[in-house]
């Protein structure tokens, strides 16, 4: 069980599950960072994900919480968290360097929350980390290419999932063919629209309705030449500093 603080409104939420520790590559700091995902649920059954990064995630004793939750609910207070909205994923609560959490804290709010629990007690589930993408930096370094080299790659000779690095200057964004596409809320694929109906070829549910996502045509240049690079979705949002949905 959980009581969230540090948000615009306090929310009483239940921990459904916690995941094992995962690792993800962060380009900005050029290293892998560890994280732990925790899944929460409100009284109406809506889910919310909390991601604890670095030491906070490492030190969160999921096995101990799992064991303890077999007998009695555990109330956690999360403080100093950041709420982020990811297109297609909804809201995620992320830890920052200032975040802290407390388990079974002896304060009136926690006692009140304990008292409000009426449902039959359900132990917290423990899952392995669902999605992670660690990278070995040594693998990246040997994949430096110039723009000229990138343009002469033979796609039929590439191993699937190969990543290349290229140091280049962003000359500008070419918007002559648009800068976003209407995408399926669920699978992010482009959808066909005839003005009234929208259809995902993957057969995803119609609701929520399609969302606009970035598809920026960036013109990149280095000493060896220039090339167009498509920047999609989250990466483009980081660059622009606003969600495509807001600008549309
Ligand atoms: Zn879809």
Automatic annotation (TrEMBL):
<keyword id="KW-0862">Zinc</keyword>
<keyword id="KW-0863">Zinc-finger</keyword>
<keyword id="KW-0238">DNA-binding</keyword>
<dbReference type="GO" id="GO:0008270">
    <property type="term" value="F:zinc ion binding"/>
</dbReference>
<dbReference type="InterPro" id="IPR013955">
    <property type="entry name" value="Rep_factor-A_C"/>
</dbReference>
<feature type="domain" description="Replication factor A C-terminal">
    <location>
        <begin position="165"/>
        <end position="247"/>
    </location>
</feature>
<dbReference type="Pfam" id="PF08646">
    <property type="entry name" value="Rep_fac-A_C"/>
</dbReference>
<dbReference type="GO" id="GO:0003677">
    <property type="term" value="F:DNA binding"/>
</dbReference>
<keyword id="KW-0479">Metal-binding</keyword>
<dbReference type="InterPro" id="IPR012340">
    <property type="entry name" value="NA-bd_OB-fold"/>
</dbReference>
<protein>
    <recommendedName>
        <fullName>Replication factor A C-terminal domain-containing protein</fullName>
    </recommendedName>
</protein>
<comment type="similarity">
    <text>Belongs to the replication factor A protein 1 family.</text>
</comment>
<dbReference type="InterPro" id="IPR047192">
    <property type="entry name" value="Euk_RPA1_DBD_C"/>
</dbReference>
């Amino acid at each position: 069980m959980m009581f969230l603080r540090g948000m615009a409104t306090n929310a009483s939420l239940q921990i459904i599950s916690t995941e094992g520790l995962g690792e993800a590559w962060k380009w900005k700091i050029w290293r892998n960072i560890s994280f732990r995902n925790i899944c929460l649920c409100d009284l109406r059954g809506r889910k919310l994900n909390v991601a604890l990064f670095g030491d906070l995630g490492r030190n969160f004793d999921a096995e101990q919480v799992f064991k303890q939750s077999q007998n009695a609910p555990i109330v956690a207070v999360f403080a100093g968290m950041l709420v982020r909205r990811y297109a297609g994923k909804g809201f995620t609560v992320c830890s920052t360097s200032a975040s802290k959490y407390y388990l079974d804290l002896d304060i009136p709010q926690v006692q009140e929350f304990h008292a409000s629990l009426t449902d039959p007690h359900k132990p917290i589930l423990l899952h392995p980390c669902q999605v992670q993408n660690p990278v070995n930096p040594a693998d990246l370094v040997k994949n430096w290419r110039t723009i000229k080299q990138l343009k002469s790659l033979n796609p039929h000779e590439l191993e699937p999932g190969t990543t290349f690095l290229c140091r280049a200057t962003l000359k500008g964004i070419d918007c002559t063919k648009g800068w976003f596409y209407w995408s399926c809320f669920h699978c992010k694929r482009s959808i066909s629209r005839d003005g009234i109906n929208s259809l995902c070829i993957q057969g995803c549910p119609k609701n929520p309705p399609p969302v606009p996502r970035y598809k920026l045509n960036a013109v990149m240049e280095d000493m060896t030449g220039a090339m167009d690079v498509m920047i999609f979705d989250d990466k483009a949002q980081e660059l622009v500093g606003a969600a495509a949905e807001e600008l549309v």
